[in-house]
User: Which sequence fits this backbone?
């Protein structure tokens, strides 16, 4: 669904509308789970953080809605929309028993968003502004990694297993930026090494777990891959991360900016 105010530029409305079926396909093919009915609201307000009603029935199906404001840009039109759509679909599919699961919910949402933009042709990425914000984001990661390497570090320690969903004791924080980036690299790595069918199997088995806690799902993924997943979720090799960013930048024709 797409609801929009007449103040929105027609080309933006058309671009967002055309991207929604492609986003749905990216979620379905990437995760192999049912995708919840979803819609986007293009508000005539600058910053609509919340909608008075964020669900609506259409054709007898309850749709979740995500708001966009006039101050939003391509990062919000594409990356945030598919991220939130994916995350809500994962949370709807698996009845997680604790909040230590952001490595799954947010991590897979970032993975699918990246899969979506990788599937677009270069002209679409350039004209929609995706190339610009991806270049900025990867440049920020690249800068941080190079700073750590110049300081003599080779490993980055960040425990994704303990990265909890937002709540009173876990507000949105600066550390979330690292969590999103590292969870993305984790899932891209896993898909490239074992194939997306491993993600499909993992989610299907996670849904049927009697107590799908974050720790138990670490063990489940370890059994599926015969890997030490807990360690892969806690320790990240900085030269490896740097090489991956350079590889993605080359693949997607992104400009990496870094000054030591």
Assistant:
């Amino acid at each position: 669904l797409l609801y929009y105010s007449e103040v929105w530029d027609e080309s933006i409305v058309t671009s967002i509308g055309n991207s929604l079926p492609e986003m749905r396909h990216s979620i379905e093919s990437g995760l192999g789970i049912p995708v919840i009915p979803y819609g986007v609201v293009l508000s005539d307000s600058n910053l609509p953080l919340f909608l008075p009603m964020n669900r609506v029935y259409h054709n007898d199906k309850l749709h979740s809605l995500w708001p966009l404001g006039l101050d939003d840009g391509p990062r919000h039109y594409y990356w945030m929309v598919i991220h939130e759509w994916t995350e809500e679909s994962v949370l709807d599919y698996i009845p997680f028993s604790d909040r230590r699961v952001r490595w799954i919910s947010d991590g897979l949402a970032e993975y699918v968003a990246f899969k979506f933009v990788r599937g677009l042709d270069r002209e679409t990425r350039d004209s929609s502004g995706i190339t610009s914000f991806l270049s900025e984001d990867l440049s920020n990661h690249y800068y941080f990694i190079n700073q750590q390497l110049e300081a003599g570090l080779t490993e980055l320690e960040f425990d994704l297993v303990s990265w909890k969903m937002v709540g009173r004791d876990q507000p949105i924080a600066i550390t979330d930026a690292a969590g999103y980036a590292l969870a993305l690299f984790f899932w891209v790595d896993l898909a490239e090494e074992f194939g997306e069918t491993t993600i499909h199997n993992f989610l299907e088995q996670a849904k049927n777990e009697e107590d799908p806690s974050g720790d138990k799902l670490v063990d489940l993924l370890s059994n599926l891959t015969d890997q030490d997943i807990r360690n892969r979720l806690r320790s990240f090799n900085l030269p490896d991360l740097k090489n991956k960013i350079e590889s993605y930048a080359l693949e997607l024709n992104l400009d990496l900016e870094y000054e030591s």
Summary: The mean pLDDT is 92. Strands lie at 2-4, 38-42, 55-58, 61-68, 155-157, 235-237. The CA atoms of residues 160 and 233 lie 5 Å apart.
